[in-house]
Amino acid sequence: MMRENFFALYNTMIDALPGGGVIESVLSGERWALAESSAGCALAMMTEGDSIAHMFPEGLSGMDIRTAAHAIKSWNFEESGLAIAAVNSVYNTPERMEALSCYLPYERFYTDGIDFRGKTVGLVGHLHGPRNMRQDAKAVYILERSPQDGDYPDSACDYILPQCDIVLITGSSLVNKTLPHLLELCKNAYTVLTGPTVPMCPELMEHGIDRLAGLCVTDQDGLRAHVVHGCHGSPFIFGKPFVLIK
């Protein structure tokens, strides 16, 4: 049976868009999806999954952002990633970040002030976390779609996450549509959504997210080159990390 509220948080992202604008260009790189608009420039994780027809077959370039934003609900993950990047170009602007959120150093921005002592921690995605996390926590579980040594497969989320006190979730879960279910599993945990894919939309916290941690791009040319050439390394060197805390 279809769940009527599955796309509730995606509808929130669309409905709460501050202003509008036009998408000037989009780019699918090896690791990142990039959107440049009249509002700004932003990223989302490049996620494989092109088996479903595009919601907008002519592409998103040149489209009004408010119209293109509906593609964040697309089951074509490549289109969805580009649409989220376009939405982020409106949400994650320097002006909004200075007004709404807190800038913190990259090394600790998404976990600043969180007490891990004696807690069970879940990491959905390969998130590093602060140095003291593994020392202080009672247990740390990494859950991954492409697990490495010591990781749990993401199918273990249903078993592990309800036991966690703190859960850090990669923003790419927005693209692959796993976030709504992950938040259901984490309803008793302190939940952080983090990464360049995260829209700094305060209204998302109405859906069970306690902290949003994302990227505000300040070097658009440098970021574009980074995406075009498929460079490794953090895109945060082309911007500033910001957090919104409930």
Short description:
The chain has 246 residues and is α/β, with parallel strands linked by helices.
Structural shape: globular
Strand order of the largest sheet: 4-11-10-9-8-5-6-7
Count of helical regions: 8
Helix content: 10-25%
| Unreliable sequence segments | none
Query: What's the total number of strands?
Result: 11
Distance between the termini: 33 Å
Task: Output the structural class.
Answer: alpha/beta
Largest beta-sheet characterization: 8 strands, mixed
| H-E order | HEEEHHHEEHEEHEHEEHE
Round the Cα radius of gyration to an integer and report it. 17 Å
Bin the strand percentage: 15-25%
Mean pLDDT: 93
Q: Could you please describe the fold and organization of this structure?
A:
It is built from eight helices and eleven strands. The mean pLDDT is 93. The strands form two sheets. Strands 4-11-10-9-8-5-6-7 form an eight-stranded mixed sheet, covered by helices on one side. It has a three-stranded antiparallel sheet with strand order 1-2-3, with helices on both faces. It starts with 7 loop residues before the first helix and ends with a strand. With 246 residues, the protein is an alpha/beta fold. It is globular, with a radius of gyration of 17 Å.
